[in-house]
Design brief:
8 strands, 153 residues, 4 helices, single chain, NMB0488-like fold
Length: 153
């Protein structure tokens, strides 16, 4: 079955120092499962409602659009090339992450995250902001802003 019909999620990294947000869609790797794929888009901060909405729609539509490398290098991550740094940890240092999730059954949910001791992000699933089955610009902007306020670097 086509996975894109069941679920999609995107990572939205906010870099207040550079006044920019970076959006990355998910894809599928036969051995690794769900991975981020190399279709990266950036938009300026602060968010403009319609610009955020259009970027999120484009990025959601890019989920599963590209096949990840069969044998990715250890630090092969779409963000490293876009954001700079030697590896994923350096590229994401000091940035807040929120995850925008869509599933066929639940619709859209925006999750804040917390940066862990090892440098990875942990989803704060108990604080997710439920938008519903239909995505609207105002609801998306509010959910993203609320989640950013709850996210910890």
């Amino acid at each position: 079955m086509d996975r894109s019909l069941l679920f999609r999620h995107i990572h939205l990294y906010c870099d207040v120092k550079r006044n920019e947000a970076t959006l990355v869609p998910n894809g599928w790797h036969e051995k690794l499962g769900v991975v981020l794929i190399d279709i990266v888009e950036s938009i300026p901060l602060p968010f403009l409602k319609e610009e955020l909405f259009r970027a999120v729609i484009r990025t959601l539509n890019n989920c599963f659009a590209k096949e990840p490398p069969a044998y990715p290098a250890k630090d092969d991550n779409p963000l490293v090339g876009k954001l700079g740094g030697k590896n994923w940890s350096a590229a994401t240092r000091g940035k807040k992450l929120i995850v925008i999730n869509w599933t066929k059954d639940e619709g859209y949910v925006v999750y804040p995250t917390k940066r862990g001791h090892g440098g990875g992000y942990h989803h704060l699933t108990d604080k997710g902001v439920y938008i519903g089955k239909e995505l609207q610009a105002e609801a998306l902007l509010n959910a993203v802003q609320d989640s950013l306020n709850l996210s910890l670097r």
